[in-house]
Each structure stands twice: as structure tokens, then as C-alpha cells.
Amino acid sequence: MPPRRRKRLDPASFDLPVEKLRGGAYTDRATRRAGEVFAADAPGPQVTLQVSSERAGVLAGTDEAIALLKLACEDWSGLAVHSLYDGDRVEGAEAVMTIEGPYALFAQLEPLVLGILARRTRIATYTRLLAEAARIKPVLVFTSRHDVWPAHAGDSHAVGVGGGYAASDDMALSGRAAPKTAIVPYALIAASEGDAVRAAQRFAGHVGDGVELLVPADYENDSTRTAVEVARAMAGRLWGVRLATSDYLVDRSIFPMMGTFPPTGVNPQLVWNVRNALDAEGFGEVRIVATGDFGVDRIRRYEEDGVPVDAYGVPVTLFGTRYGFAADVVSVNGKPQARVGREARASARLEKVK
Fold it and tell me: Are the C-beta atoms of 100 and 306 separated by less than 8 Å?
């Protein structure tokens, strides 16, 4: 069987500030100055830079790192780059990319390559853990409101690489935005005098036919009532209701049940209350999305207990696990030359980048 052909993202997809990058912006001074030293010593050394993972995970950011090299290097044709692909599983200390050519050409880009790979791999790896914990249920990751805007596009792509869905639809370079679904914002409910039904109707008219809505049910802290009212009014247009009750609040449907379980936030009983209320009204097709502080352990616990969640919403701020990459020169002018313990590691998995 021939090997599977894989495509890389167009470098233009990342909208990089090319001129600033070429001018040395965003890199560290030590690396930039090393490049200047070699540039002054023409023709300078020809090196092989090996980029290695520090721990096992789901690799992401290779397309973005390659885009950086292609667009911000003064002479891409002077480099030979071999790389794994986004989505590849990697082991600790495994070579994921090599860059061969005049060191002065790409020295100032080295720290940026490492930073891209570290952040995107961290997100892809943790998203994969969340997706596995949720089994076949979607994991929606909210990137746009939890980090600075330049990070959104690459983060959304990494979410898709990990098997999740970017809730910030338009930023998902990988095409894994939640399909044909739009989230009604809380601000529109507020501007509709706190009426979730009216906000959903207005939003539906704006996004047009063929797009189903995900509507927050917790605006008035009465999620069961709101969920049923929205389901009645938006039959045929409602994909699901979103539960995002604050950990400092107790939903009104929980009041009569307090005393036997932690009552705050999005708890299992609240999910059951909403599910039972929707089912009783004949809205079994309406999904429930639970959002908030849902990490791997909590999602796994909900799944094991059979809590009727249809999808989980997770902020990218939860992805706090450390993930890093190391870059080491392993040959100079065709001869082995490496820091002890960082010697070249041959890898048949690396493919030439065109």
C-alpha cells in the first residue's frame, strides 16, 4: 500500500508579520547576535539544526513553523528542512524537524520555531486527552476569550489537530470548527432585556437558514425553565443549550435538592434536571453542552457516571501543562558537532519540506 499523502497548510494562512520577523522582532537577543556574528564571518558555517521534543505528545505547529521559515527567512531556497506532520505522535527526545543551511539565514528564527511548536503541541496534546476522556462526544475549546488575539488562529488549529473543535469558528485553520453551529452570545441576551428566546430569534434571523444555534440557558440562573422555553421557540433551529453556571451560584432548579451534594456550578444534578425537563417536553434531540472547569479527570468522571452531557466546553486556559522543544546544532560544515547528550538522531519519519 502506498504511503498516505498529507498536505501542509498554506503559509499565507497564518498571516505572519513578515517584515518585523525578518528584522529580528520577537526573538531573543543572544540568538540574534549569534546570527549577526556568523553573517559577518562570510560565508559562515553550514549547519544542521535538530529540533527535538522534550516529552511524548501530539505534535502541532509544524506547518506554522515551516511558514515562519519560508516567509521570514531571506533565502528559503538556501535551506533544506525535514519535518514530521501536525498530528503525529512523538516520543520524548525524538527529532521532529531538522533545518540545514547557513546558520546566519535562520538563527534569529530558531527561538520562534521552538515557541510555536511548544504552545501548539501543548494544546493539541491536552485536547487529545480531553477528547479521549469524552469518548465520542465533542470537546469545544474556547480560544478567543481566554488569550491574546494573535494566538487564536494557531491555537484553534492545534485544537483541531488534537481532535477537538474550536468554538471560535472563523479562526479554525484546520477546518474543525463546530459545523453549522453558532453560539448566541450573552451580550445579545442582555441587549434583549435578558430574554434568551428573543435573543435566539434575533440571532437566528441574522445567521440565516442552515445554521443551528447553541443557546446559553443560565443567563437568569434558571436553566431548566430557560432551556425548555428556548427549545419550544426554536424548534428545528436549536442544536443545543449551554450550561455555564458559575461555581459561586446555585441554579434555581437545585434549590429543593440541596443538602446531599455540592450544589454550585454545572454539577451532574443540574445536567439531569435540564435533560429531564427537555425530554418531558419532547425535546430529546436538543443537546446539552456543559462548560466551565472541565479537565480530563472531571470529564472522565462524568462519562463513567453516565451524566447526560452531549458535549463539553473547555477554556484554553486549562491547558497549563508544560511542553517544550530543544534545538541543537548537530553538524557544522558537514562534520558532526553537538553538545554532549544532544547528538544527531537519525529518523526515517522526517519528510522533506518542499
Answer: no
Name the more confident of 211 and 265: 265
Instruction: With a cut of 50, say whether residue 216 has pLDDT above it.
Output: yes
Q: What is the pTM of this model?
A: 0.86
Residues 6+ apart with CB under 8 A from 5: none
Class of the domain covering 11-122+323-352: alpha beta
- Ranges for all domains in the chain classified under CATH 3.20.140.10: 11-122+323-352
Model confidence over 155-199: pLDDT tens digits?
888 988 998 887 765 434 454 545 577 889 999 999 999 999 999
Q: Which amino acid is at 296?
A: V
